């Protein structure tokens, strides 16, 4: 590549890897994590759950189909998972400078530049992934042009507060009124609801939604350590004492576990991929799911009225919980996909069915 | 579901175009999966060269045709409680559908395991399939299924041109094609109706992207897609003819998952249990799509997907058919995670097809919607550039990669044509276009190949230019940055040498580049394929090398190890038989206590299953890559004599580089390969050879012919791959042939050899230890010499060879073994006429017939050879007792002429068969009949056409004709034959030659299927003579009528079917023969 500028990726264990810059030529620090997803970088990069993270993609060629232009669907982005790039930096083996797709408006590099996010290519991403697998996710930085930065642990920050909106927003019209607690929601969750006869009330992470009139409660995904979201957990505890259906995804699942009285822990290197197998507990039914999380619910700590709903077929970790008698359930994975497999989108229908049932129960 | 106790598995028979080695892989995996469950397995497969028909894989093997009659007989005898029909390609599937319809499974209470036959029928019958898709709102191409010409024309009227015609129930797109108007449609449909009762007239999606998914579903409705693949070539070129990339490269997440979801929905709706493949057309400018087809069985694509991802699809499919759920099975690569997952790749895989079209006289070389390729390769890299350049070299067609090939002068019109009407050279035409200054947009316009792929090729092209620009400064200019960039883009050392130093002594220059590269520390790294992109540790060592990396995934093997070089790409002349040899070599080395390492790159093979060896390098069999691996692994030895000609050709260079080659010294191998050296050694040993000379002028050629007489065999050295080898019968032909084929000069000499007619051809396959033969097998060709040994029908043990001749052969073989100090496998081909023996050639490596003779004799020559190679003392065995064998084996070739429109289906000195079978019988006739039925011959119902050519074959066939008449057959004969038969009181009906334009005309009778078997013997093998009968032969092939072109074989076949009834063909397993 012409005018290639060299940059460095440095991990907290001292590993230093030289590569070539693409995107913004700037330095950054964050938690270095890897994703094994083979497609979906426009979706991944805009997923607020990646806030503060330097993302390593194990798929070796990235940028092939460019980045689509912005399109809106009912006032939200049709393509992206939020309105900006959330990752702190991007690490790849091979950057495809020229792209080709009918839908592309720009290259990945140009898009990163727009948001001042650095990228580095020419890295042995498999070697890097193996380090992260063995030693666990760790802090790191991309250093450009001798402009050094301090290592920084994003999990010490209240990332949710950074990515959550500050105001309440209303979307759509429909027979079910759902409150979405936005801890950094992916827009596809909103799209999934809006396709299903729902009036959506999107509220900030610390908003006291218990005061609202609604039929069902939804807890979104989001970045960082769930224990940072004390305000959400508090409001949630109130909701759990009532009977309105609740559905949580990813961080939302961890928040439900914490509010129920259980504990969460940090996984060694997390699940970030489109191929995570989960088993519906007590059945032979399994699903391939899209995942992006570093923390998980410790099922041993759950109170007796709670049980594991899904479990990971690879490492046995908790992939969702449910209340034994009340209509509360959650998934650690992403039924809304984007990117990744769409096999569990039916859970939105399940949730809305329980909302309908709840309402029917109230009427009678 | 109760687990079955005894399961029958149907194989796919001989390798043919559209159905090749991939089914040896899938069947072997299925057998392994059942064996693990303690289930008794019965395999029917006449393909004796396969790994699946080896000892200790199935409990019982039947070397019988995979046809409804024989399968029913085996069921009747064996009474299995289950049957697997999805592991033997379309052959097994078609057979199963026929048996199902005839109620055979029900009658014998055999449960079809896995996908129900009804689901198979639903996917195979285009009408039902479309209806099934409509039911769930999945789009398919607008199409109409028709059963007659009138409806076909009406359908086209409705849909509008261009349209595509497809035949239902056909493997590899047989009988398919595009039509732009009514006339083209009429011609196409007529042909398609000969292979299928139903054809499909469909909207053409030419230019759309072609994408496939491999889908797995268990009986609990759990469903995953293991891999998706994108064709480099857009719709219009059959996926078997396309360059295919896994995973998809130009699909967005939305497109990828939209198609994935549709696949899962479709497969659930169809009720498939096990594995299947779904193909889509995807609009390149929107998310519009069409489902093209579902293959409800293991396929070429599934074999590729297994190798591409490390996910053992056939193994898992077999387990699922026993009632397991996906989540109950383990990922066999990590051995800790679940089989219910979708592999994440951290590399890219490129598959490229290999064609051998140049071997066929008259063949239409354009590639399109029907398969013509005979093999494929798979290359792995971290970038498309790296993978495709590896792949282009793996094809072994003399190319060095995308660039730096022998320069070609072509005009723009030719380039345009090559790009828009592709043949097997299209990818190289893209390079020619770049050289001629075409823009990327222009190339896209002509090819419709996605810009992204073209851009990657342009990157390679430009890098090549950059290297060439440094030519003035030579090697010194090669600095680390540029070198590494070139290596990352898949340039071989040789390619770099050509670009940097020009076309000089390329092999020497390659070594200079290699030395420079190593001095600069630019080395490849070894990476593992682990199914999960490093998320979990892998337990298996499935490896490839790349220049995109700084760390090896593993260290050198520290226990004593042996490297076995595989066979590389399957092509005419080298296929599954060498995979069998390689696998047996590896197994023997493992038994002898060595860690085993395989290098091979053919996704259709068993040797590239990662559990066959301790380490599998899915890599090029090039000097460069083999040396890289040897230097990294430092093995005790490397075996290159079990993989056919590709590894054998590396012998000298590897030896020069001090590689620890086991067995016969490479210098000796060269003395056998080099015609001059071989000849003088034969003279020195007093062994006769057909006379030959290497000549550099026409005058010298005529002088030589004056000595030996016509016909002569001529072989120009200029033409690659021996394609222009031919027999000429007179001076006129000699001149015209040479004019057409090549120039004759000091630089391009021509080898002319005496061609001995009516000579018997005998082969010896043997193993020697330091020059002493320790084991051997002699087999005899049915045909006289002149038919390539790969196309010949063979008896083992020999049936009509004098004991005295055998003794003489043995003495000659012993002399040769001693002189060449052979250690390991070798093969000698002999001619015998009037008890005089001549040697044609000696190959100091395993030969094509090793698995056949090893299995029939029960004496595994590869095992012996490997033991010798490893230095183990091997006693001379009792192979002389061969005549005591109480049964006979017959090996018969499989031809794929149906798939090669225009090709003249005649046997000559150059090999044209694509596969083979080997069957056993109590008598030679029984074995011959079984084997010929296995390769598609049918016993004629009532009529045979004989056009018997030269007087010698007329005489040879006279008794056969009489036998036919006695057996109640009607003989149709062309003029000369008719007259000859009449003179000898054999009644026949006269039919006119095609050129007589007079009825009753032979072509009319063929088209009306009034003839059940065609025997057409060309007078000689000269071009003029061949052209004469071409129409008869080609029409027979095009209308699916069995054809014989060799009098000796015709005689043997007639003798067999006139004296044997179907019930005389014994249903006996291999074990039963062994116990005789």
Automatic annotation (TrEMBL), chain A:
It catalyses: hydrogencarbonate + L-glutamine + 2 ATP + H2O = carbamoyl phosphate + L-glutamate + 2 ADP + phosphate + 2 H(+); L-glutamine + H2O = L-glutamate + NH4(+). Keywords: Amino-acid biosynthesis, Arginine biosynthesis, ATP-binding, Glutamine amidotransferase, Ligase, Nucleotide-binding, Pyrimidine biosynthesis. This is Carbamoyl phosphate synthase small chain. Its EC number is 6.3.5.5. PROSITE patterns: GATASE_TYPE_1. Signal peptide: none annotated. Small subunit of the glutamine-dependent carbamoyl phosphate synthetase (CPSase). CPSase catalyzes the formation of carbamoyl phosphate from the ammonia moiety of glutamine, carbonate, and phosphate donated by ATP, constituting the first step of 2 biosynthetic pathways, one leading to arginine and/or urea and the other to pyrimidine nucleotides. The small subunit (glutamine amidotransferase) binds and cleaves glutamine to supply the large subunit with the substrate ammonia. Residues 5-143 form the Carbamoyl-phosphate synthase small subunit N-terminal domain. L-glutamine binds at residues 49, 222, 224, 251, 254, 292, 294-295. The active site is at residues 250, 334, 336. Residues 1-176 are annotated as: CPSase. The gene is carA. HAMAP family: CPSase_S_chain. It is an enzyme of class 6 (ligase). InterPro entries: Anth_synth/Amidotransfase, CarbamoylP_synth_ssu, CarbamoylP_synth_ssu_N, CarbP_synth_ssu_N_sf, Class_I_gatase-like, CPSase_GATase1, GATASE.
From TrEMBL, chain B:
Residues 937-1076 form the MGS-like domain. CDD domains: MGS_CPS_I_III (cd01423). It is an enzyme of class 6 (ligase). Residues 130-322, 679-870 form the ATP-grasp domain. Its EC number is 6.3.4.16. Keywords: ATP-binding, Ligase, Nucleotide-binding, Repeat. The keyword Ribonucleoprotein does not apply. Gene3D superfamilies: 3.40.50.20, ATP-grasp fold, A domain, ATP-grasp fold, B domain, Carbamoyl-phosphate synthetase, large subunit oligomerisation domain, Methylglyoxal synthase-like domain. Signal peptide: none annotated. It catalyses: hydrogencarbonate + NH4(+) + 2 ATP = carbamoyl phosphate + 2 ADP + phosphate + 2 H(+). Belongs to the CarB family. NCBIfam families: CPSaseII_lrg (TIGR01369), PRK05294.1 (NF003671), PRK12815.1 (NF009455). PANTHER family: CARBAMOYL-PHOSPHATE SYNTHASE [AMMONIA], MITOCHONDRIAL (PTHR11405:SF53), CARBAMOYLTRANSFERASE FAMILY MEMBER (PTHR11405). This is carbamoyl-phosphate synthase (ammonia). It comes from Hymenobacter glacieicola.
């Amino acid at each position: 590549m012409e005018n290639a500028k060299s940059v460095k990726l440095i991990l907290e264990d001292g590993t230093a890897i030289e590569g070539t810059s693409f995107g913004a030529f700037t330095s950054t620090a964050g938690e270095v994590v890897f994703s094994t997803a083979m497609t979906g970088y426009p979706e991944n990069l805009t997923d607020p759950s990646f806030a503060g993270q330097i993302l390593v993609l194990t798929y070796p060629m990235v940028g092939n189909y460019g980045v689509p232009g912005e399109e809106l669907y009912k006032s939200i982005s049709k393509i992206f998972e939020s309105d900006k790039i959330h990752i702190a930096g991007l690490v790849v083996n091979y950057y495809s400078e020229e792209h080709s797709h009918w839908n592309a408006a720009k290259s990945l590099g140009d898009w990163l530049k727009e948001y001042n996010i650095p990228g580095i290519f020419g890295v042995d991403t498999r070697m890097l992934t193996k380090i992260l697998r063995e030693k666990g996710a760790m802090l790191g930085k991309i250093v450009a042009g001798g402009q050094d930065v301090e290592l920084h642990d994003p999990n010490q920050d209240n990332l949710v507060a950074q990515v959550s909106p500050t105001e309440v927003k209303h979307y759509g019209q429909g027979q079910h009124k759902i409150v979405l607690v936005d801890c950094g929601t992916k827009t596809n969750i909103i799209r999934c609801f809006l396709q299903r006869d729902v009036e959506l009330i999107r509220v900030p992470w610390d908003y006291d939604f218990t005061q609202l009139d609604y039929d069902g409660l939804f807890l979104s995904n989001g970045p960082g350590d769930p224990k940072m979201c004390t305000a959400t957990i508090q409001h949630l505890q109130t909701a759990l004492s009532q009977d309105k259906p609740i559905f949580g995804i990813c961080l939302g699942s961890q928040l439900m576990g914490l509010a129920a009285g259980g504990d969460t822990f940090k996984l060694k290197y997390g699940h970030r991929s489109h191929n995570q197998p989960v088993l519906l507990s007590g059945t032979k039914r399994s699903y391939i799911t899209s995942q992006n999380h570093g923390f998980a619910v410790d099922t041993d700590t759950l109170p007796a009225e709670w049980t594991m709903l899904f479990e990971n077929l690879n490492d046995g970790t908790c992939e969702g919980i449910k209340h034994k008698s009340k209509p509360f359930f959650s998934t650690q994975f992403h039924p809304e996909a984007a990117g990744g497999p769409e096999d569990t989108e039916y859970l939105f229908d399940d949730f809305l069915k329980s909302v309908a049932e709840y309402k029917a129960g109230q009427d009678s | 579901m109760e687990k079955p106790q005894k399961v029958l598995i149907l194989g796919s028979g001989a390798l043919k175009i559209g159905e090749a080695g991939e089914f040896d892989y899938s069947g072997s995996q299925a057998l392994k999966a059942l064996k693990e469950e303690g289930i008794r397995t019965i395999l029917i497969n006449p393909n004796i060269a396969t790994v699946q028909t080896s000892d200790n894989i199935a409990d019982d093997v039947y070397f019988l045709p995979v046809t409804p009659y024989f399968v029913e007989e085996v069921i009747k005898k064996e009474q299995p409680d289950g049957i697997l029909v999805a592991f033997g390609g379309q052959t097994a599937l078609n057979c199963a559908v026929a048996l199902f319809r005839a109620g055979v499974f029900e009658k014998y209470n055999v449960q079809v395991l896995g996908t129900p036959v009804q689901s198979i029928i639903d996917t195979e019958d285009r009408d039902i399939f479309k209806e099934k898709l409509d039911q769930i709102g999945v789009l398919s191409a607008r199409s109409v299924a028709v059963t007659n010409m009138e409806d076909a024309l009406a359908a086209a009227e409705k849909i509008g041109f261009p349209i595509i015609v497809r035949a239902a129930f056909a493997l590899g797109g047989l009988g398919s094609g595009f039509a732009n108007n009514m006339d083209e449609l009429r011609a196409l449909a007529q042909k398609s109706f000969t292979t299928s009762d139903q054809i499909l007239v469909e909207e053409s999606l030419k230019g759309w992207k072609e994408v496939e998914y491999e889908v797995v579903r268990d009986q609990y409705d759990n469903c995953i897609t293991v891999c998706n693949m994108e064709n480099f070539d857009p719709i219009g070129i059959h996926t078997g003819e396309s360059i295919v990339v896994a995973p998809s490269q130009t699909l967005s997440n939305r497109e990828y998952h939209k198609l994935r979801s549709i696949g899962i929905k479709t497969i659930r709706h169809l009720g498939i249990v096990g594995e299947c493949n779904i193909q889509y057309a995807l609009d390149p400018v929107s998310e519009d799509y069409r489902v093209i087809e579902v293959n409800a069985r293991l396929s070429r694509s599934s074999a590729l997907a297994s190798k591409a991802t490390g996910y053992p699809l056939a193994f898992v499919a077999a387990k699922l058919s026993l009632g397991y759920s996906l989540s109950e099975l383990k990922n066999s690569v990590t051995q800790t995670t679940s089989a219910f997952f979708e592999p994440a790749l951290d590399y890219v895989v490129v598959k490229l097809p290999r064609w051998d079209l140049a071997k066929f006289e008259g063949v239409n070389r354009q590639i399109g919607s029907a398969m013509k390729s005979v093999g494929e390769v798979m290359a792995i890299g971290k970038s498309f550039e790296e993978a495709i350049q590896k792949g282009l070299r793996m094809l072994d067609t003399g190319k060095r990669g995308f660039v730096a090939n022998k320069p070609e002068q072509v005009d723009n019109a030719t380039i345009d044509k090559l790009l828009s009407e592709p043949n097997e050279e299209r990818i190289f035409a893209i390079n020619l276009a770049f050289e001629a200054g075409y823009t990327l947009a222009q190339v896209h316009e002509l090819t419709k190949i996605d810009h992204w792929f073209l851009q990657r090729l342009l990157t390679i092209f430009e890098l090549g230019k950059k290297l060439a620009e440094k030519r003035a400064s030579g090697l010194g200019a090669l600095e680390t940055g540029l070198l590494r960039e070139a290596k990352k883009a898949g340039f071989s050392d040789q390619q770099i040498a050509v670009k940097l130093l020009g076309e000089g002594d390329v092999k020497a220059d390659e070594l200079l580049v290699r030395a420079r590269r190593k001095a600069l520390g630019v080395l490849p790294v070894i990476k593992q394929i682990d199914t999960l992109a490093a998320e979990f540790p892998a337990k298996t060592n499935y490896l490839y090398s790349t220049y995109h990396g700084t760390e090896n995934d593993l260290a050198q093997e520290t226990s004593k190890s042996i490297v076995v070089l595989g066979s590389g790409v399957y092509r005419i002349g080298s296929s599954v038989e060498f995979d069998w040899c390689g696998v047996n070599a590896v197994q023997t080395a493992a038994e002898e206590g060595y860690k085993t390492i395989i290098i091979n790159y053919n996704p259709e093979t068993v040797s590239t299953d990662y559990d066959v060896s301790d380490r599998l390098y899915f890599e090029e069999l090039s000097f460069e890559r083999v040396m890289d691996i040897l230097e990294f692994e430092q093995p005790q030895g490397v075996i290159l004599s079990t993989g056919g000609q590709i590894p054998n050709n590396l012998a000298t260079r590897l030896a020069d580089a001090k590689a620890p080659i086991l067995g016969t010294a490479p210098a000796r191998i060269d003395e056998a390969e080099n015609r001059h050296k071989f000849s003088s050694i034969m003279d020195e040993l007093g062994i006769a050879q057909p006379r030959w000379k290497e000549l550099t002028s026409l005058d010298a050629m005529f002088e030589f012919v004056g000595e030996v007489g016509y016909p002569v065999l001529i072989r120009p050295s200029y033409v690659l791959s021996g394609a222009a080898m031919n027999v000429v019968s007179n001076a006129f032909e000699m001149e015209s042939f040479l004019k057409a084929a090549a120039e004759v000069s000091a630089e391009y000499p021509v080898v002319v050899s005496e061609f001995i007619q009516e000579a018997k051809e005998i082969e010896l396959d043997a193993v020697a230890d330091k020059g002493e033969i320790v084991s051997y097998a002699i087999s005899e060709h049915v045909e006289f010499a002149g038919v390539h040994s790969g196309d010949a029908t063979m008896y083992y043990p020999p049936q009509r060879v004098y004991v005295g001749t055998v003794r003489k052969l043995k003495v000659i073989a012993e002399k040769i073994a001693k002189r060449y100090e052979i250690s390991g496998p070798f093969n000698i081909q002999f001619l015998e006429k009037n008890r005089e023996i001549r040697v044609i050639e000696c190959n100091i490596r395993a030969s094509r017939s090793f698995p056949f003779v090893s299995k029939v004799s029960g004496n595994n020559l590869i095992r012996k050879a490997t033991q010798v190679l490893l230095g183990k003392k091997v006693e001379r065995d009792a192979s002389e007792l061969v005549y005591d064998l109480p049964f006979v084996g017959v090996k018969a070739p499989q031809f794929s002429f149906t798939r090669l429109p225009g090709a003249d289906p005649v046997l000559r000195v150059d090999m044209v068969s694509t596969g083979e079978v080997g069957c056993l019988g109590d008598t030679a006739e029984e074995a011959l009949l079984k084997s010929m039925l296995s390769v598609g011959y049918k016993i004629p119902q009532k009529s045979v056409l004989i056009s018997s050519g030269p007087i010698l074959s007329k005489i040879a066939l006279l008794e056969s004709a009489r036998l036919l008449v006695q057996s109640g057959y009607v003989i149709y004969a062309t003029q000369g034959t008719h007259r000859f038969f009449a003179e000898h009181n054999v009644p026949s009906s006269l039919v006119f030659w095609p050129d007589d334009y007079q009825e009753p005309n032979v072509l009319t009778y063929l088209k009306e299927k009034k003839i059940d078997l065609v025997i057409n013997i060309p007078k000689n093998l000269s071009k003029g003579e061949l052209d004469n009968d071409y129409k008869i032969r080609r029409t027979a092939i095009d209308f699916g009528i069995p054809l014989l072109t060799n009098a000796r074989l015709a005689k043997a076949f007639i003798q067999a079917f006139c004296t044997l009834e179907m019930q005389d063909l014994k249903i006996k397993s291999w074990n039963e023969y062994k116990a005789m």
